[in-house]
Amino acid sequence: MVLRDVTPFVPYGAGPEDVLLDMMRTHDREHLPDPDLRVEELARRHHVSVRHAYILFERIGTTPGAYLREQRLLAAQAVLSDPRHGWRRMSDIATAVGFRDLRTFERTFRRQDGTTLAGWRREHLRSGLLP
C-alpha cells in the first residue's frame, strides 16, 4: 500500500488495520462531493477487496456505505444551518455533498432526520454569522 501525502491519526497501539480504516474514513470525508465514491471505488482506491472494506468498517459498528451516507448528511446539515449558504438551492447542496439527484437526497435526509430539507433549514439556521 502506498501512502500518498497522508498522515493519518494513529492512536498508540493501533495496528495496520486501524491505520487503513482511518485512511478510508478520511478519504470518505475529503471526497464527499464525488458521486462515484461508492464502496467498490473506496476499496479499489485503497487496494483492498470490498469484503475487506466491510470487515474494516465493522470495527466501528457500521458499513462503508452507511458511513459515507452519514458523512454526506452531516455535511448537508452543516450547509443547511449556515446562513452564509441560505441562498443555495437544495439541488446545489445535494451535488455539493455527493448526491446525484435531489429526490434521492431529500428521501435519504428525511429518513435520517425525520424532517424535510427546508424544515431542517428553518429549524436550525444559525443567526448572527456574517456572510
Automatic annotation (TrEMBL):
SUPFAM superfamilies xrefs: Homeodomain-like (SSF46689)
Domain HTH araC/xylS-type: residue ranges: 22-123
Key words of the record: DNA-binding, Transcription, Transcription regulation
Pfam entry (one): HTH_18
Database matches in InterPro entries: AraC_XylS_family_regulators (IPR050204), Homeodomain-like_sf (IPR009057), HTH_AraC (IPR018060), HTH_AraC-typ_CS (IPR018062)
Protein name listed in UniProt: Helix-turn-helix transcriptional regulator
Organism: Pseudonocardia xinjiangensis
Lineage: Bacteria, Bacillati, Actinomycetota, Actinomycetes, Pseudonocardiales
